Amino acid sequence: MSSSTTNNTSDMEIPTIFGLPGVTPTFDPSVTDVVPTMHTSSYPAINPALNPLLSQAGKTVLITGATAGIGFAMAKSFVTASASKVIITGRRQERLDEAVGLLRQHAKELRKQTEVEGEVVDVLILNAVGEMAAGGLCEEGGRTTVEVWAKLEANLRGPMRNTELFMKQGKDRQKFLINISTASAHVSFPEYSPALASSPEYGFTKATAGLFFRYIAQRSDPEKMQVVSIHPGTIYSELWQRLGVEKSVLPFDDISLPADFAVWAATKEARFIHGRFVWVNWDVEELKAKYAERFKQDAELFRFGVCGLAGSNLHVVQ
């Protein structure tokens, strides 16, 4: 069970990432006025083992990039939520086989009838990603157009193609599409994190994908296809290990948080955030209480676009 916390980074050793401090001691990502409570791990409202409203019974779920990390944890949560079938994809066959075996064992331990393998899909989670790399865009010594374009292939073209296939199958079934985005798509200033600012290729390509999913959502009836983009929190992964960052150095979120949030986002409970971008850390009950009605009046809030401008008359947001 998580609660509202203020992570004190001032006494922490600040790790070096890409030759730059990963997080500045003056910025605390747990402090926000979006909602009162910021979570760092799963909690009852989004936990499928505790909330029967999140049941995925009868649904087939496809998760890309799910052999480890966030994607694998999401697959486990959908098994916990009694999904009829969970399909996962990955780059390496041996890791895919291992992940399938672990998910089947998880289902067996919970006495779930979930099959882990493909057919018509009800829930699509786009989690596969081209990871961040240091270097400015197109500048001397930075990332070249060829390198940036390759990242666009991973972070935009791949999800776009999967979305196209998803939208064209099972037309009479309710669909749920979840785009795993990143805070890097909207936070790129050095005062937040010099490390993120030093690798704009990642945020740029994920922001481009976020804009694509905004347009998909605008043309989608949420009763037929519900679309949500999420920042999955800061999860300790193989990337951090390769960068030499120890888990104890930063206030990482527990992987249960994005895993269970994805299950919640694939239900009608999350209908009010259709087309929006949200952080998994935000308490969903507080989010609904504070913003459900406001979203009906504000078409731009928490959507990818130009900051400060809203509406057809281009009025400035105060």
Describe this structure in words.
Helix 1 (69-80) packs across helix 7 (256-265) and helix 3 (145-167) runs parallel beside helix 5. Residues 6-15 and 23-27 have low confidence and may be disordered. Helix 2 (93-109) links the parallel strand 4 and strand 5 (115-116). Strands 5-4-3-6-7-8-9 form a 7-stranded parallel beta sheet, with helices on both faces. The relative contact order is 0.16. 33% of the residues lie in helices and 12% in strands. It starts with 15 loop residues before the first strand and ends with a strand. It has helices at 69-80, 93-109, 145-167, 194-197, 200-218, 238-242, 256-265, 284-297, and strands at 16-17, 20-21, 60-63, 85-88, 115-116, 123-126, 175-180, 225-231, 277-279, 309-310, 315-316. It contains 8 helices and 11 strands. With 318 residues, the protein is α/β, with parallel strands linked by helices.
Number of strand elements: 11
Strand content: 5-15%
H/E element order: EEEHEHEEHEHHEHHEHEE
Structural class, from helix and strand content? alpha/beta
Q: Report helical residue fraction.
A: 25-40%
Radius of gyration: 19 Å
The main β sheet shows up as: 7 strands, parallel
What is the strand arrangement across the widest sheet? 5-4-3-6-7-8-9
What's the mean pLDDT score?
86
Low-confidence stretches: 6-15, 23-27
The end-to-end span amounts to: 36 Å
Shape: globular
Q: Can you count the helices?
A: 8
Tags for this model:
two-stranded antiparallel ribbon, 8 helices, 11 strands, 33% helix, alpha/beta, 318 residues
Summarize this structure briefly:
With 318 residues, the chain is of the alpha/beta class.
